[in-house]
Write a structure and sequence with these properties.
about 160 residues, alpha+beta, 2 domains, 4-stranded antiparallel beta sheet, two-stranded antiparallel ribbon, about 30% helix, about 25% strand, elongated, F-box_only_SRC, F-box_dom
Length: about 160
């Protein structure tokens, strides 16, 4: 066993939890869980905390959008998510022509045809494409998708 591995495993769980909280829950958590049972338990706790914090922010009205002034329009993209809420169409993420994943949110006022860039608070999704966005109880819900580079080509099951 590597001496560096012994040192990091000797850290208190609170310190490991803080370190792991800076990693991507979409990309890194699954790999961290494979290290040992202690790390798996810490990641399970972080997943529960992240889900609870995200749900609480919606229920308590702490997750909100605010628009910036003088914003042009989103860059060209494909595989983005979109949904219409009231008289505004929202798009999230997608891929550039060079397959760069985005995690930006844009709003198009369907009456004025003016784009704005809503400012959000709370946990922000990782860059992703081909996700599903829908409206539920006057809120936008984003589900699924993938980040480039992705693990499996589309034609594999």
């Amino acid at each position: 066993m590597d001496s560096g591995e012994l040192v990091i495993n000797a850290l208190p769980e609170e310190i490991l939890e803080k370190i792991f909280s800076f990693t991507s829950q979409y990309r890194d958590y699954d790999n961290i869980c494979l290290v040992n049972k202690k790390w798996n338990r810490i990641i399970d706790g972080l997943r529960t905390l992240n889900k609870s914090t995200f749900e609480d922010s919606f229920q308590n009205g702490q997750f909100y959008f605010r628009c910036f002034d003088k914003v042009s329009s989103p860059s060209h993209r494909h595989s983005h998510s979109s949904a219409v809420l009231d008289q505004t169409m929202y798009i999230f993420g997608g891929l550039s022509g060079t397959s760069t994943s985005y995690n930006d949110l844009w709003a198009l006022d369907l009456n004025t045809k003016i784009w704005s860039r809503p400012l959000t608070s709370g946990n922000y999704p990782s860059p992703k494409a081909a996700a599903t966005m829908t409206v539920h109880q006057n809120s936008l819900i984003l589900y699924g998708g993938y980040s480039h580079p992705y693990s499996y080509p589309f034609n594999q099951q």
